[in-house]
Amino acid sequence: MPYISPDNWLRYVDRSLDQIMQSLLSTFGALVPEITDHTVNNPYVRDLMHFAGMTEQLGYYIDNAAREHFIDHARLYSTGISLSKLLDYRVVGAVPYGVNVKFVLNQANNTGLGIVIPAGIPVATEDGTITYTTTSSTTIPVGATSSPDVPALQYKTRMHSLGNSTGLPDQEFVIPEVAPIKVAHNSAVVLVNGVPWTLQDTLAYSLPTDNHFVQDINEDRDTVIYFGNGFPYGKIPPTGQAITVSVQQTLGSEGYVGANELTNILTSIILPPGFTVTVDNAFQATGGADSEDLESIKRHLPASFRIMRRAVTRRDYKDAAEQVAGVARAGVYFSCGKSVEIYVVPVGGGLASTSLLGGVFTFMDEYRKMITTKIDVFSAGEALIHINAAVNIRPNYVNATVLAELQDDVAEFYSYLHQEIKGKIVIGDVYEIIENHEAVINSVVTNWYIEPVPRPSTTGLPTFLWAFNSVSAALTAVERWRIVFVTANTFYIIRNSTTLGIHNTGVLIVLPGISFTVLPNGYSSGNTYEFATYPFNAGTIQLVEPNLPVALQANVKLTVTGGM
Hints:
Largest sheet: 6 strands, antiparallel
Shape: globular
Low-confidence stretches: none
Radius of gyration: 30 Å
Distance between the termini: 75 Å
Strand content: 25-35%
Number of strands: 34
Helix content: 10-25%
Mean pLDDT: 90
Structural class: alpha+beta
């Protein structure tokens, strides 16, 4: 019998049952040429097949284990957590929704002094099921009836006792999540024996004498508080000392409220005699999310490792801003590194809240930007795409069903997850989306345009409120507009370089190609807002502003004929 090396039975590339059987039978035939029946009727071949089946199964597990070592191919959340720890990336925990609220008096402030509304006021929906907390104080000026916008986040503060320190290195304490309550990212305030310790993004730069800790997420998505090892990364809490933590508990993705839903003040506010106060939110909440999932870790972990905690290039600033909890997309205006404007889109889309903008600024200004670089952070506008189309479908399809599916397809393509700030939209994409549906025979896009998005010229201005009415075919080129306030209720409109007169808030303004009404909102002289308009029904539209092109399902209006 000829000698056959054990290595020749199988090749390392043999993975499927058929490949393994072919290699085995080839060697088997060389070893025992007198056995010519290589079908499953032969008991020897059946034994080989059993071996091949087990080998294929082992190969499957080996391949899966190898795959989990590469973040791009990982399938397990635990892998994302393990690789994040290996590369010192901090997985983002739950993010509270943010919203701006306004406090309104029952009469104008005639006290001669500003009326202060302190921070930390809990406000809730009418039924009290969802609570937000204001994060800064505000003052209602003399003569005014309402406060400026006040940022609020969806959370309640809770205290937990974590037990006593064992005095060992690398201590971890878990705060389990009880659905739907979650612990907000980087919200922990830790006391060791009554002494506050400082939250850090990493212990890599902590000295053995530094009272530092880190808030992280484990593979069960529970919040973990961990301390250093004494040398060289952070101080170990002394043996027996009590460890307590205060955290912000949030509903994460389930904490959403729409406009005008926060109307309930849950605590008393000290006011001068004769005054009462109410609260309201003019816009929907944005930015809330649950802890980072595996797909998000796959996007952010390599970028975090690449920039190594320092933003230098335009891409660095974009990648760094997108690591901030609550940010889905970021765009950057970059001027040789001396000044950087960052525009962000919150998780879930819409306009970024004041709290989120402040979080991005702090993150970039304190931890990421190069020295001497000036940072400004703005909310990217949401440039709403309006689409009208006539669609002809095959006779054996239900019109209403096809209509809903096409609206979903278009809105999904033009969602905040799939578009870029200052991006380009092409009418051919609309045709492709619609006519890729199996029911569609043909289609004609009758109208499509972008709704203008006014944005403040600088930070700190009141939110611009308007009732947009329409644009028309009179818009044939990209044009830039400015609205400059003279008083709280009067303003100039400037189109390109031409002034189009002075106008009043609350009055419908009809101009060539566009009509709208500016609503009062406590503007001051000099407040300036800018927007652009784009050609009506253009084949391609390249945005010239830091806006994100988005098509909401309600703005995709299709007329479906044929079918049944």
